[in-house]
């Protein structure tokens, strides 16, 4: 019988900026008040929330610092908002292993608009088109 070596995955926790990898520590410093929630982490997975008007700026910040992979953009409807999650992959931390960075923006249902990141991540175009059709979200250049 094969044992499961991933059975002790670290639970999600909020971390102070001093214990974050440098890339995320600097992200929190630069966008401070626009990062709405704390940065939480699991094993090689980081997540935070962001005010919608700053998504392009955050994507540019990440891109200029070597985050070149956009894995997906997802959207779903919650009670008050359209939630849009951007999933980036980057080699960060001491081990330099692939880590997922998720940035979530909450768009009010009466203002379904967010900055497009297709100029920075060309594969974003298809994700943005699909979300625009399904959720009537405008991705502005």
If you had to describe this structure to a student in words, what would you say it looks like?
This protein has 141 residues and is of the alpha/beta class. The strands form 2 sheets. Strands 1-2-3-6-5-4 form a 6-stranded mixed sheet. A two-stranded parallel ribbon has the order 7-8. The chain contains 3 helices and 8 strands. The chain starts with 12 loop residues before the first strand and ends with a strand. Strand 4 (69-77) and strand 5 (81-92) form a beta hairpin. The protein has a domain at 16-106: 2-Layer Sandwich (Beta Polymerase, domain 2), CATH 3.30.460.
Low-confidence stretches: 1-19
CATH superfamily of the domain at 16-106: NADH:ubiquinone oxidoreductase Nqo5 subunit
- What characterizes the major β-sheet? 6 strands, mixed
Helix-strand pattern:
EHEEHEEEEHE
Number of strands: 8
The CATH architecture of the domain at 16-106 can be given as 2-Layer Sandwich
What is the first-to-last residue Cα distance?
Answer: 54 Å
Class from secondary-structure proportions: alpha/beta
What Rg, in angstroms, do the CA atoms define?
16 Å
CATH class of the domain at 16-106: Alpha Beta
Residues in helices, as a percent range: 10-25%
| Strand line-up in the sheet with most strands | 1-2-3-6-5-4
The CATH topology name of the domain at 16-106 reads: Beta Polymerase, domain 2
- The number of helical elements comes to 3
Spatial shape: globular
Strand content: 35-45%
Query: Mean pLDDT, rounded to whole units?
Result: 83
């Amino acid at each position: 019988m094969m044992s499961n070596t991933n059975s002790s995955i670290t639970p999600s926790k909020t971390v102070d900026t001093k214990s974050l990898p440098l890339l995320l520590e600097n992200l929190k410093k630069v966008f401070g008040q626009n990062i709405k929630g704390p940065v939480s982490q699991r094993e090689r997975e980081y997540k935070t929330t962001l005010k919608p008007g700053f998504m392009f700026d955050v994507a540019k910040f990440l891109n200029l610092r070597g985050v070149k992979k956009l894995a997906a953009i997802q959207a779903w409807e919650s009670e008050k908002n359209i939630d849009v999650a951007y999933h980036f992959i980057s080699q960060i931390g001491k081990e330099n292993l692939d880590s997922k960075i998720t940035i979530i923006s909450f768009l009010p249902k009466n203002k379904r608009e967010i900055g497009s990141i297709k100029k920075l991540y060309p594969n974003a175009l298809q994700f943005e088109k699909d979300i625009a059709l399904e959720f009537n979200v405008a991705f502005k250049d």
